[in-house]
Specification:
Belongs to the prephenate/arogenate dehydrogenase family. Keywords: Amino-acid biosynthesis, Aromatic amino acid biosynthesis, NAD, Oxidoreductase, Tyrosine biosynthesis. With 361 residues, this protein is of the alpha/beta class. The protein has 3 domains: 162 residues, NAD(P)-binding Rossmann-like Domain (Rossmann fold), CATH 3.40.50.720; 109 residues, 6-phosphogluconate dehydrogenase C-terminal like domain (6-phosphogluconate dehydrogenase C-terminal fold, Orthogonal Bundle); 68 residues, Alpha-Beta Plaits (2-Layer Sandwich). It is built from 13 helices and 11 strands. Strand 4, helix 4 and strand 5 form a beta-alpha-beta unit. The N and C termini lie far apart (54 Å).
Length: 361
Amino acid sequence: MRTALVIGTGLIGTSAALALAGRGVHVHLADHDPAQARTAAAMGAGSDAEPEGPVDLVIVAVPPAHVADTLADAMRRGLARGYLDVASVKGGPRRELEAKGCDLTHYLGTHPMSGRERSGPLAASADLFEGRPWVLTPSRDTDTEVLNLALELVALCHAVPVVMDADAHDRAVALVSHTPQLVSSMVAARLQNADETAVRLCGQGIRDVTRIAASDPAMWIDILSANPGPVADVLAELADDLAETVRALRSLESGAEDAREDGAAGIADVLRRGNAGRVRVPGKHGAAPAAYDTVTVLIGDQPGELARIFADADRAGVNIEDVRIEHATGQQAGRIQLVVEPNAVQPLTVALRERGWPLRP
């Protein structure tokens, strides 16, 4: 791939353009808002000048509702040898292109499983896709050259290709992406009119659950409008669990021993199933979840503290597998959980104590 045209210079489009431009591909940028394309160009993502002739690959990075029209227009104008989109739904756009009578041999639907709560070109980063799954949904009609271009794109972005059927992809993202967004927003909505004393009690649990509730509503309306059926199916199952959990909690309120035992059993069931599901979430680098332990340290909110504790762990010969920080409300301190291999707990604990770090249970 020597040349590419990215249509849509938001977070995903600009990030892909930055990755390609950084690896020697001559990238052209286009957007319905020319100022946004100019911003992406100023960041080094490419040129906002029109290409002089057909490019190797057109990458359509517009909202799902506009994908088919944008692709159809690009194909009609003969802008490239191959065309793909990066929308978060795949079945609908393909069916729309079929209905428009487009030649789908030169098209491949894709979806990089990466994003942020922020949007727009200024949120973009060349390493946004590093090590993340990038779904490809080829059909029997897909030309081999187009598939190879898509695989080259994924490789240049340092992502991991995953081949799926388009409709299977849409059912999968309904479960692992679209439903979590709605559930996070629903929980966060409970805080809108909550008493201030309750809000001040917010800890890491509520921060974890509501993190993605900060996402752009307009963007998510576009996404959910393109995949409503599969999302509704998952939410219906979730609603059944919610109704059963409410019933179990009401039973725990009851003074009758039998009802309380029944309620406790219902709560235990959903918690156990949650444990079993959580275990299936891939761990570090996408591998099977590993059994890690944590070392918890009280840390001050001053410059250099994180660097110092990481350096001390390095001196002890301990690799930090993951990090979680729980901030203390109204204080310049917090708890940092250093996630490590079980056999690293003892040497890390000894080393940190020797260097004066206050450890916590």
